[in-house]
From TrEMBL, chain A:
Topology of this chain in the membrane: Multi-pass membrane protein
Keywords: Cell membrane, Membrane, Transmembrane, Transmembrane helix
Keyword Ribosomal protein set for record: no
Protein name: Urea ABC transporter permease subunit UrtC
Membrane spanning stretches: 20-39, 46-64, 70-86, 122-144, 200-220, 250-274, 286-311, 323-344
Phylogenetic lineage: Bacteria, Bacillati, Actinomycetota, Actinomycetes, Micrococcales
Entry coiled-coil feature ranges: none
Organism: Cellulomonas phragmiteti
Subcellular location: Cell membrane
TrEMBL record, chain B:
Low complexity compositional bias, start-end: 287-300
Keyword ATP-binding recorded: yes
Pfam families: ABC_tran, BCA_ABC_TP_C
Highest taxon of the lineage: Bacteria
Keyword list, A-Z: ATP-binding, Nucleotide-binding, Transport
Protein name per its UniProtKB record: ABC transporter ATP-binding protein
Entries under PANTHER family matching the protein: CONSERVED COMPONENT OF ABC TRANSPORTER FOR NATURAL AMINO ACIDS-RELATED, HIGH-AFFINITY BRANCHED-CHAIN AMINO ACID TRANSPORT ATP-BINDING PROTEIN
Automatic annotation (TrEMBL), chain C:
Annotated TM spans: 6-29, 41-57, 63-82, 94-112, 145-162, 194-216, 228-253, 265-282
Family listed: Belongs to the binding-protein-dependent transport system permease family. LivHM subfamily.
Chief site of localization: membrane
Alphabetical UniProt keywords: Amino-acid transport, Cell membrane, Membrane, Transmembrane, Transmembrane helix, Transport
Pfam families reported for this sequence: BPD_transp_2
Membrane topology of the entry: Multi-pass membrane protein
Name of the protein this chain belongs to: Branched-chain amino acid ABC transporter permease
Lineage of origin: Bacteria, Bacillati, Actinomycetota, Actinomycetes, Micrococcales
Protein origin, superkingdom: Bacteria
Coiled coil: none
Localization, UniProt: Cell membrane
Automatic annotation (TrEMBL), chain D:
Name this protein carries in UniProt: Urea ABC transporter substrate-binding protein
Pfam families reported for this sequence: Peripla_BP_5 (PF13433)
SUPFAM superfamilies from the UniProt entry: Periplasmic binding protein-like I (SSF53822)
Entry annotated with the keyword Signal: yes
Keywords assigned: Signal
């Protein structure tokens, strides 16, 4: 919303391109320059894992923060992406015509026909890009058309995650059951035991994540982005403007699913395993923590939140396993109840305190040099009004 | 969140912006009159039943182009339900035709695309979007995916004109949530205009407006009504007397009386309904207004 | 034939368990729109109440009967605490209550783990509930009959309360039109609190009852919460009869699927059926029409 | 991303020129292109996982304990951690290993396979531990296996499991199938049971175990009258017990895990079945689970393990006494705890036999290392890295402890792939 305001109050089309380019440059320096330089291979791989989780978060930010759809079942799409990639790696490791080990151990020793196409890297990548989005689109059309929304949709998507995990476990012969798929040796032919190639995976994850953020940024500022917010806040009103809100929501839901799928597909080689434990109800809710904490409706909030939470979890749970559970619970409670727009809203508050007009959250304060009084009165009033509105919304 | 901003104090005083600008209206509705010639709303035997409760019971209603029709009646008479039924929000049986197109059974967004626009009792604009964005969305139902996925580079002329018409040019970059109540109502009307609705269904459009704003709104509606088909659900009798060209009185889901303001006011059945049930409830204005017009103004 | 009747009973019994778990939710979710993920942990609290009471009351039967009202109060007080501290400030953000209460659930689980230890604990079933009652050639376990009876009793009492008492009238008024109720002098705040107390209290009763069937451990609640929500979603909000029909339908369906396929597949099939059902009736089996646009 | 043939599939590829090309390539999502530019510059390959960074210079040596202390598996794994701590304390008090005190690096696996993999890597690469002890679920082991293999480090895994695995980098100190499942079935066959019903949780161990049991049954003239799986966390066993009852089974082989056992046994008892008529052999119920199920509900039922708290041996007396002294009188000891305790001593034995903490040296020395464990004498098999163990069938007593009623003729040689059983042909 504040981003939307920003676009309208400033000569957006000139500045935003610069801003996007600047943002990408900063992110690239941090992710491609600083992080690899200061982190050990182990920590870098860990960061790669967090980036994969952040991809899911970016999608959730779009669907939930901007679209108002509380997606409690993103684990499903994460899992589909992950299993597709994992299966491809298992088949590739087995060699042409070979049978992956788990199919021999738990299954009938043959590759089921519907796994066969995944021997091809092209088919695999296409499937990863298309299947999660396609399934989300179909499901979304089914439920959104019938105006299943709000809590109903949230609970349904959660049940979907539960059912998906049970299905994966139950079909052990072809999915590896609770053990999931693991022990990958190569990623599109590149040896995964080689630290250099692991590093490469990190760069891919970082690049993909940046690309996703850029895509979401463009979407947020497009007419579609405005419409999505409109649907979130007044779905029926949008219907009476001649739109079918179902279609509007489906697009965001499918994009979120696609991002989750890609996140899962990279997660598998980065972590070396994908299992039902990564896709069920609990991990699906877990994806939301970072988004809520970072600021669900902002561009970078979900990304930073997801990375920060994962990092904290790894660090804190080492020393205080039971404390971590309390901490996680408390984070949920405090942030959602008292800081619904996440930590991103703290930044806005802080800027307001200092009398600087609030702007888009991804806008560095320095790019907005206008001091109070330097602009025409009307504009100033407008800014104050916008600020108050936002505050009112936040404390609602 | 959005509800909260709605109930909060308006940040911008209504007088900070210009009033309505009827001149600019021409730019929006100056379409050839021929476009609207065959537009009329024809409702036949409309019935709406909720879980056994008959809310609308066999209503016939015809509103022609150029008419400014007011729907009145005591609480529970079925006024809003009829509007809901026309726009696909309530389960309807019977026939509702506009411009020769059958609307019953269509999903809401298709009904809207057939040229029907409506507002709601509580102003429902998109609080977090700016005035401009609100209007832009209203104007854009027919846009292709490619246009949708790009940002807005220029303000569409019909949006520009609508801004002028409803006097919100000055505040076009403010979030709609901070507008005063009356301004929100105008914004809604503006949205109907850019949406190019040929049948406008307005549910209590002047509730919460000052006397001057009502005047302006009434004039605006009259001008729109010259070309398009307009149905207004309203309790404000003074407003009704000033601007209605015809009135339909509903009672318990049925049409009680129909005609000009004078005809309806003289109808003994109407007087009886309003006096009989009428010491309470919002319908009291009809009878009372005959004696004491000034007392009839109600604020939602 | 025998198996058929046994399965019928299994389905009814499963339905009664679902009903007990979901009844309180139907009240809090249906009436207030609050998605309380900690409802499962209130069930857990009820179960631990039964466990603790057993340490003080040696007779298993007496202790179980005492645990039912005490469990109700424990669950209810937890609910009240939650309502007053957190949920009351979030009525305008129903979806957010889901996340907040999930956090509460995490904390309560860990609390149970730290207080009672991670391993399961045992509540002894009273002697008069052991064994089975022969009926039409079947043996119906007494515990399941007890739970079936308890579930029915809860529904009857609750609907009587809703119908006959002033609290009930206030609750129904609030559910149908909150604003109107408020302007008519109903204190919706007090009503909300009471509703939450009662709804959470029923979760406590459910917890006590479930000790007869399953394990008592920190994760007890998570095993039931998704199913309980599905019952409410299928049942529709605002009326108890929806939840009752939904619980028994889902119970019977699950038992049927499970008998003809496997327990895992049954869960998945059940989900498919529910999605298909919501295509037909998106607002659930029964729903109270409200005037609000949103 | 496009397909390409991979001439160097087995060869190690070094990507040196990461910076510019990789950055650009990664940004455009055509990741493979990026890696391929680097492909040509095949550099000098260091050994996979690199030279070990284990520091053996000081007077202490680091080892890692990796168990779930949070999440659903914490219940069980905490007990393993306790006995590992006990063993480490004892060893340190007795002078350490090769004169070095053990320094424990403890990690939480959080009941998630991915976390196990991540923490294993951390223990090996960042903490440079000489060996890791832990894991419980099959999925946690499967997740860690590639890490230990690629980093060439050692894992000691203390839980009975489904077999069909042998990694040079893992020592399996719990039972494999021929030391637990097959003795369990042997016992039922000896008792003249002809109709066995299988019930298990829906995951890898039960499914694999039941695959083996089916093959065994076919060869031994036993009929499997039903095979049912319940999702983990399943709470309503009315239907499954209905099926069990109407199947006419005269014994049940139970591979249910965790909470489900409680619901299963309560239902079993409620419909009026008893251990006298239809005994249940369980392979996942140990002493600490009995309390949670309720002794009333399982008294007289059978279990198959390699250790019970009641095993009569001086080693066990010492172990039980030490454990209770450290953790409290009411804490029982169980098979996985004992196997974990034993695993640390076996590692000590191997290190001392090898005279080195080096992985290769330990692998070399492992064969034949034995330890007088609480369960009896166990010996490491150098070929498959499992250990020879004695099998005990136990009966749950009214005091909640389990008493052995049958035992195998001495320790059974581990046979994870069941190569020694004709009927098992084609299983793996």
């Amino acid at each position: 919303m504040s981003a939307a305001t920003g676009t309208a109050t400033t000569p957006w089309w000139q500045r935003s391109t610069v801003r996007v380019a600047g943002g990408v440059a900063v992110a690239a320096v941090v992710l491609f320059g600083i992080a690899p330089a200061v982190l050990s291979d182990f920590r870098l791989n860990l960061l790669a894992k967090f980036l994969c989780l952040a991809m899911v978060a970016v999608g959730i930010g779009l669907a939930w923060g901007r679209g108002g759809m509380l997606v409690l079942g993103q684990g499903v799409f994460f899992g589909i992406g992950g299993y597709l990639m994992a299966m491809h790696m298992k088949l590739a490791d087995a060699g042409p015509g070979g049978v992956p080990d788990f199919l021999r151990l738990y299954g009938d020793g043959v590759v089921p026909g519907w796994w066969e196409p995944l021997r091809s890297p092209v088919v695999t990548v296409l499937a990863i890009l298309v299947l999660p989005a396609g399934i989300a689109a179909l499901l979304g059309l089914a439920v959104f058309r019938r105006r299943v929304r709000g809590a109903y949709f949230a609970i349904l998507s959660q049940a979907l995650a539960a059912a998906f995990a049970i299905l994966l476990v139950g079909q052990q012969k072809v999915t590896g059951g609770t053990n999931g798929l693991n022990g990958f040796r190569s990623f599109f032919g590149y040896d995964l035991a080689d630290p250099i190639n692991k590093r490469m995976l990190y760069f891919i994850a970082a690049g993909v994540l940046i690309a996703m953020v850029v895509v979401v940024r463009l979407l947020m500022n497009s007419r579609y982005g405005e419409l999505l917010v409109a649907v979130r806040d007044q779905e029926n009103r949008v219907r009476f403007l001649g739109y079918d809100p179902a279609n509007v929501k489906v697009v965001a839901y499918a994009i979120a699913a696609c991002f989750a799928g890609i996140g899962g597909a990279l997660f598998a080689p980065v972590v070396g395993i994908i299992s039902p434990a990564d896709v069920g109800v609990i991990p699906s809710i877990g994806f939301l923590v970072g988004v809520a904490i970072g600021g669900r409706a902002t561009l970078l909030g979900p990304v930073l939140g997801a990375v920060a939470v994962s990092w904290a979890e790894t660090g804190l749970s080492e020393q205080f396993p039971s404390f971590w559970t309390y901490f996680q619970g408390a984070l949920f409670i405090l942030v959602v109840a008292f800081l619904p727009q996440g930590f991103a809203s703290l930044g806005t508050l802080w800027r307001r305190r200092r009398g600087t007009p609030a702007d888009a959250p991804d806008d560095p304060p320095t790019t907005h040099p206008s001091a109070p009084g330097s602009s025409p009165d009307a504009d100033d009033d407008a800014q104050h009004a916008a600020d108050s509105a936002r505050t009112a919304g936040r404390h609602a | 969140m959005s509800e909260q901003t709605g109930t909060g104090e308006p940040v911008v005083p209504p007088d900070a912006t210009g009033g309505l600008d009827p001149e600019a209206l021409e730019a929006v509705i100056a379409a050839p009159g021929a476009r609207f010639r065959h537009d009329y709303l024809e409702i036949r035997d409309l019935r709406v039943v909720f879980d056994g409760f008959v809310a609308v019971d066999g209503v016939d209603l015809t509103v022609t182009q150029g008419d400014l029709r007011f729907l009145i009646g005591p609480n529970g008479a079925g006024k809003t339900t009829i509007v809901d039924a026309i726009t696909g929000l309530a389960p309807a049986a019977g026939s509702v035709q506009f411009g020769g197109v059958e609307l019953v059974g269509k999903p809401s967004h298709k009904i809207v695309r057939a040229g029907v626009g409506r507002t709601f009792q509580t102003a429902s604009v998109f609080d977090e979007l700016t005035v401009l964005q609100n209007l832009d969305i209203a104007a854009g139902a027919g846009r292709g995916p490619w246009t949708m996925l790009r940002r807005r580079h220029v303000v569409p002329p019909e949006v520009e004109a609508a801004l002028e018409t409803v006097g919100l040019t000055q505040v076009r970059d403010l979030p709609a949530g901070v507008l005063a109540h009356g301004q929100k109502q105008w914004l809604e009307i503006g949205m109907l205009l850019v949406q190019d609705a040929r049948l406008l269904l307005l549910d209590e459009p002047v509730a919460g407006m000052s006397q001057a704003e009502r005047e302006e709104t009434g004039l605006l509606l009259q001008r729109i009504g010259e070309q398009r088909t307009v149905v207004v659900v309203e309790h404000d009798m003074e407003f009704l007397r000033a601007f209605a060209s015809s009135v339909t009185v509903l009672h318990q889901g049925r049409v009680l009386s129909e005609g000009t303001v004078a005809q309806v006011q003289a109808d003994p059945r109407v007087v009886e309904v309003y006096l009989g049930s009428g010491a309470h409830g919002r319908g009291r204005g009809m009878a009372a207004s005959a004696a004491e017009p000034a007392a009839s103004t109600e604020v939602e | 034939m025998d198996a058929l009747f046994s399965q019928l009973f299994a389905g009814l019994s499963l339905g009664s368990v679902l009903l007990l778990a979901a009844l309180g939710l139907a009240l809090t979710f249906g009436q207030m729109g609050v998605i309380n993920m900690a409802h499962g942990e209130f069930i857990m609290a009820g179960a631990y109440t039964a466990f603790v009471l057993q340490a003080f009351i040696p007779d298993a039967g007496v202790s179980l009967l005492v645990a039912l009202p005490v469990g109700f109060v424990v669950g209810g007080l937890l609910g009240l605490l939650l309502e007053v501290t957190l949920i009351s400030r979030m009525y305008r953000r129903p979806l957010d209550t889901l996340l907040v209460t999930f956090g509460v659930a995490l904390v309560l689980q860990q609390l149970a783990r730290d207080v009672f230890g991670a391993p399961n604990v045992d509540v002894r079933a009273p002697a008069w509930l052991s064994g089975a009652v022969p009926f039409l050639g079947m043996n119906l376990p007494k515990t399941r009959l007890f739970i079936l009876g308890l579930a029915i009793a809860c529904v009857v009492v609750l609907s009587l309360v809703l119908k006959l008492t002033s609290l009930g009238r206030r609750i129904r008024a609030t559910v149908q039109n909150r604003d109107l109720a408020e302007t008519s002098g109903v204190s919706t705040r007090a009503t909300d609190r009471l509703t939450f107390f009662v709804g959470s209290g029923i979760a406590g009763i459910a917890g006590v009852a479930l000790t007869l069937l399953g394990s008592i451990g920190p994760t007890l609640g998570t095993n039931y919460i998704v199913d309980a929500f599905l019952v409410v979603v299928v049942g529709g909000i605002g009326q108890l009869k929806g939840a009752v029909i939904a619980a028994f339908s889902l119970g019977l369906l699950q038992a049927t699927f499970e008998y003809s396929t496997t327990a895992s597949l049954a869960k998945v099939l059940l989900f498919v059926v529910i999605v298909a059902f919501l295509q037909v009736r998106p607002q659930g089996l029964v729903s109270v029409r409200t005037r609000s646009l949103a | 991303m496009t397909t390409h043939t991979l001439p160097l599939r087995t060869t190690r590829k070094r990507a040196l020129a990461l910076s510019a090309a990789a950055l650009a390539a990664a940004l455009t999502l055509s990741a493979c292109g990026g890696a391929r530019t680097a492909e040509g510059t095949a550099g000098t390959a260091s050994a996979s996982g690199g030279a070990s960074c284990v520091d053996t210079s000081g007077d202490s040596i680091k080892i890692g304990f990796l168990n779930s202390l949070s999440g659903t598996m914490a219940i069980s794994e905490q007990t393993v951690r306790d006995s590992l701590d006990l063993a480490a304390e004892e060893i340190n008090a007795a002078g350490g290993v090769l004169g070095k005190q053990l320094q424990i690096v403890a990690e939480d696996g959080a009941s998630e396979p991915t976390v196990f993999a991540e923490k294993a890597e951390k223990l090996i690469s960042s903490d440079c531990v000489a060996a890791v002890f832990g894991g419980w679920t099959s999925s946690s082991r499967k997740a860690m296996l590639p890490v230990f293999e690629s980093k060439n480090s050692l894992l000691f895994y203390p839980v009975q499991y489904e077999g069909l695995e042998a990694s040079p980098n893992i020592f399996y100190t719990g039972a494999t199938t021929n030391q637990q499942i097959i003795p369990g079935m042997d016992y039922l066959a000896e008792q003249g049971k002809k109709k066995v019903f299988l019930v298990g949780s829906d995951y890898v161990f039960p499914r694999t175990a039941n695959k083996i049991i089916n093959a065994y049954a076919e060869a031994n003239d036993i009929e499997i009258v039903g095979e049912e799986y319940a999702p983990l966390g399943h709470t309503d066993f009315a239907t499954i017990v209905n099926k069990l009852k109407s199947s006419g089974a005269d014994a049940v082989f139970n591979t249910l895990n965790g909470d489900s056992n409680v619901a299963f046994f309560k239902e079993y008892k409620n419909v009026g079945m008893t251990a006298d008529t239809v005994p249940v052999v369980s392979v996942s119920i140990a002493e600490e689970e009995v309390g949670g199920i309720g002794v009333d509900n399982v008294v007289g039922q059978l279990t198959a393990w390699n250790y019970y708290q009641t095993v009569e041996s001086p080693e066990n007396e010492t172990f039980v006494a030490a454990f209770k002294e450290k953790y409290g009188e009411n804490r029982p000891t169980s098979d996985p705890m004992e196997a974990a305790y034993t695993s640390l001593y076996l590692w000590k034995g191997m290190v001392e036999k090898a005279g080195s903490f080096d992985v290769a040296a330990i692998q070399e020395a492992a064969d034949g290392v034995s330890f007088d464990a609480p369960e009896g004498t166990v010996t490491v098999n150098g070929d498959n890295h499992h250990i020879a163990k004695t099998a005990y069938i136990g009966e749950i007593g009214p005091d909640g402890l389990i008493y052995s009623i049958w035992e195998s003729d001495g320790p059974i040689e581990p046979d994870p792939f069941l190569e020694g059983y004709d009927w098992a042909e084609g299983l793996s």
